[in-house]
């Protein structure tokens, strides 16, 4: 019994000679809203406990010191996980077949 090499389901060898070029770029990196609070409220006693705040909500208007304090849990905005939104663009090109 002969052992088969390769994983070609078609059985042709044309896929071995072709090459594919892929390039990926990241575009439109934006910082979105702040997510759940990561402050450890039990750190003083050596434990680990989160308060369950799921999203940062500013206590005051933008530009004031209250804009950095969460209305739900009272923590500073830096304790909340920053959510990032970005777009990944991948371009895949393969050589065109010339019929030979």
Automatic annotation (TrEMBL):
<feature type="region of interest" description="Disordered">
    <location>
        <begin position="1"/>
        <end position="21"/>
    </location>
</feature>
<keyword id="KW-0863">Zinc-finger</keyword>
<keyword id="KW-0479">Metal-binding</keyword>
<dbReference type="GO" id="GO:0005737">
    <property type="term" value="C:cytoplasm"/>
</dbReference>
<keyword id="KW-0862">Zinc</keyword>
<dbReference type="GO" id="GO:0005634">
    <property type="term" value="C:nucleus"/>
</dbReference>
<protein>
    <recommendedName>
        <fullName>ZF-HD dimerization-type domain-containing protein</fullName>
    </recommendedName>
</protein>
<feature type="domain" description="ZF-HD dimerization-type">
    <location>
        <begin position="34"/>
        <end position="83"/>
    </location>
</feature>
<dbReference type="GO" id="GO:0000976">
    <property type="term" value="F:transcription cis-regulatory region binding"/>
</dbReference>
<dbReference type="GO" id="GO:0008270">
    <property type="term" value="F:zinc ion binding"/>
</dbReference>
<dbReference type="InterPro" id="IPR006456">
    <property type="entry name" value="ZF_HD_homeobox_Cys/His_dimer"/>
</dbReference>
<dbReference type="GO" id="GO:0003700">
    <property type="term" value="F:DNA-binding transcription factor activity"/>
</dbReference>
<dbReference type="GO" id="GO:0050793">
    <property type="term" value="P:regulation of developmental process"/>
</dbReference>
<dbReference type="Pfam" id="PF04770">
    <property type="entry name" value="ZF-HD_dimer"/>
</dbReference>
<keyword id="KW-0963">Cytoplasm</keyword>
